[in-house]
Amino acid sequence: MLREKVLMRLVVLLLGVIASTAQAQHYFFGNPIIRNYKPEEFKGGIQSWGIVQDDREILYIANNFGLLEFDGATWNLYSSKKGTKVRSVYVGGDGRIYIGSQADFGYFAPDEQGTLQYFSLVDSLPEKHRNFDEVWRIYEQGGRIYFFTFKNIYSYKPGKPIEVIVPGNPLEFSFQVNKELYSLVWGQGLSVLENHRLRLLPGGDFFAYKQIASILPFDKNQKIIFTINDGVFLYDGHSVTPFKIDQRQIKEKLIINQALLLKDGNYALATQNKGLVLLNAEGQLLLNATLEDGLLDNTIHTLYQDTQENIWLGLNNGISMVELSSPFSRIDGTMGISGTGYAANQKGNTLYLGTNSGLFVTDLTAPKRRFSLVPNSTGQVYHLNQLEGHIFMGHHNGPYFIKDGKAGLMSPENGAWEFVPVPNQPDKVIMGSYKGISLLASSEDGLHFLHKFKGLEESSRVLEFDKNGELWMAHGYKGLFRIMFDPKLEKITSIKFYNSKHGLPSNQLVNMEKIKGELIFPALYGVYRFDKSKDRFIQDKEYSKLFAPNEHIIEMEEDVQGNIYFISDQRVGRITVDRFGKLTLQDHLFRNLREQLNDDLSFIQVLDVNNVLFGAKEGFIHYNAARAKPLLPFHTRLAQVLSISNEADSLLLSGRKLDKATGTELPYAFNSLRFVYASSFFEKPEKTQYQYFLKNFDTRWSDWTTKTEKEYTNLPEGTYVFHVRARNIYGTISEAKRFEFVVNPPFYRSKWAYTIYTLLGFLLLGAAFYQVDKRFKTEKRRILLDKERKLGQKEIEIRQITNQSEQEIDRLRGEKFQAELDHKNRELTYSTIHLINKNELLNNVKLELQEILKNGGSIAPQEELKKIIRSIDHNITSEADWKQFELHFNHVHGDFIHRLQDRFPNLTPQEIKLSTYLRLNLTTKDIAQLLNISVRGVEISRYRLRKRLCLDRSENLTDFMLKF
Span of the secretion signal (predicted)? Predict the structure, then answer.
């Protein structure tokens, strides 16, 4: 069994090699990917005559309007002083861009800011040599730059006078091959420039009257010479032999404007009438790209292969870039296909492609591939299969059989999805349709409808038999169906349905693929296998680990070498298998495909080991595995640095000046900057993304963006390093480009300013010290004088104070004596008053008692006692006694009664007495005895006195009297 498998694999591989050999005459399976630039886009003239690339991978193009510059993001146009058409361009070893135009030649060099400025060299020529037509070729050799016209040759070495070589006859185009300069001298032949003279080559007279387009290396001993109208020849240094070109697919005679030796050893021809032509070293036609294949024009004046191996075409109307290095080509409307790609199949040298518009066919051996619509196939094509050497088509209208170049409907069953051969019964086929599955039988006339199976009415788009002969059907929105038939395929014996209850992650988006002879089931996420013993699905870890946890695999297809091409919801790629069985996922080269593919029903068809088709939104994309190679590195460059601090942006540095700048210092006024950058990757440059980082300002790299400029405003003073890098459509990241610069502080914070501040500080400090010292000395003198004066004053004051102290002591002693005297007087007065009253009272009482005794009771005792009381009352209220008391009281208390009467004249005698007793701070009881009233009467008298004195309730009456 193993031997049979190996033999089968070798047969398939051999068939693939044979098919590849049959297709080897085609450089591309389809048409190459072409990017066109119209004059409106690059703002130049319609015609371009020369294309070169400098060491920074910037393109320079000689254009009708001047010199075009393209850095992958921005087009710039530079005009010469005379504004004439630029016919040739060359980048010298000194970095100058030399150009040739009408009656002028010179070079562009950067100024101080890096902007290209033109310098004409014709002004230094003698007047007699200034009359020439156009400079069509520029070459460098031996440190000299040679400008070739149809009249003279001008040799220029920087710093030295221009030498003029005047041939005897008019010149045609000139060429450089292997460091030798050749020119066609009209009427004489092909000549070589030696010692500033043109020497006719042996056999060169063969070209005396033949216009040469290009001379290129052919092998170690021969050169290949392309003429404009007279064919192609090989020249070995002595003789000329014709070189035959296979022009069977090119009906018209080629008019060659220029030829170019490509890096893969093939030759590219820029033609006047047939667009771009590619030949191999045997003269076989590899490619002919014309207007109908996507070019802007069939006339190509010049061509150039860049560092990424793309070929640039200077057209009669515009500029085109052909991705010759790409392993991808397109099969679309330019080849006769219309619609979205859904199906493909190859039968020998015939290729069938199915789209939503119908079935298209082409002969792969045809010189110029063009697809034509198969009759009766118009409409949606879903599937193409080859069974027993016949092509069958699943179509919206039903199953079709392709015979004699036409499509014939085999059954009225609408919506045929797929055809699957029954294992071990090669004449039987299961067909999936919109409403279930049917059995078909094959014959010489195609497939014949036998019957439709009952019991399954589901749409059956994805069908596959497992190794046990059981049919599986994947339904995109429900799950999986496992179907078993009776031995005669007459009916379905059992159907088992599987979904998320049986180990799958979901019911939806479950697919089915046959890889290495076994069924695997890509689900919503992850890849699963069916474990029959457990009747469940288990995750296949080997495949699942290749994909992201949330990645959904939509389509997978295996080639004869075991490589697996896949499409997921996130990417497109290929899984390769090494000799140890290890799986490796590669997706970088396919990153450009995802957005171009058919997102309705994704489709992959492996035609052979090298050719794979992907269904695209427009036709198909072809992948040639044999042409796939490691991606070449590309560069990111900083194009401009501009100051945006002012109203109008000002250019600081650009071009080569910027490349060579290190530690650029900027004034603080230029602390707002715009950085403009680009990359040298020219495939879909609008999708190239950039990432930037400003060291000492940003904390990390920025997010990826397609913008080609970045602004920073109000940067603080300091040292910065701007980094920028690019990521192309394949995910390759370039090396970061860096630009170091310093933002100087403003003048008031500069080193000079701080130096001035320091000097001024020292001066101010010195002046301050001087003033302080001067003030200190003056103050010291003043203080000494003040001290002497104050000492004198102090002595006088001390004497005065001594005298005053003695006088004060005497006064205080007198006041103390007087106070003691007054106190005694007050006490005396108080005692006297009481004594007087007491004595008087006692005397009166004594007299009354004596009177009572004397009378001997003639009067009733009661009356006598009343009389005694009245006598006591009279003594108590004696006015004479009060006058005596008032006199003493006023003396002791500073004339209190008079002052009180003056201030309060409405006071009654009783109130004045109460006031004096309050002044003496007597108790209420004592006052009551003195006034001969009750205690309650005293309280009432106090209340009336307060009203007389108009005292507030918060004021104390006794305190008022003591303070009065």
Answer: 1-24
